[in-house]
Design brief:
Blueprint (H helix, E strand, L loop, with lengths): L5 H13 L6 H21 L13 H12 L1
Helix pairs in contact: 2-3
Length: 71
């Protein structure tokens, strides 16, 4: 039997966060912002020199992410 690796654990975390709210667009958006902000904070703390976002013409979520990261 294969042991779970970090990718498996991350996938499970994503599944656990989003599965219960998959039918609620607003909760999914807010959870996505929170999850992404936490990922960004981890990257920056880990030494990433910066972040780059593709907004796909939806800047509001990215603005919320950046606001959370700056806290």
């Amino acid at each position: 039997k294969r042991r779970m690796n970090d990718d498996d654990l991350e996938f499970q975390k994503i599944h656990d966060i989003f599965s219960p709210i998959k039918d609620d667009k607003e909760k999914t958006l807010q959870a996505g912002i929170k999850f992404t902000a936490e990922q960004c904070q981890g990257l920056l703390k880990g030494g990433a020199p910066g972040l780059h976002f593709y907004t796909l013409n939806k800047t509001s979520p990215v603005n919320a992410i950046l606001e959370a990261v700056r806290k």
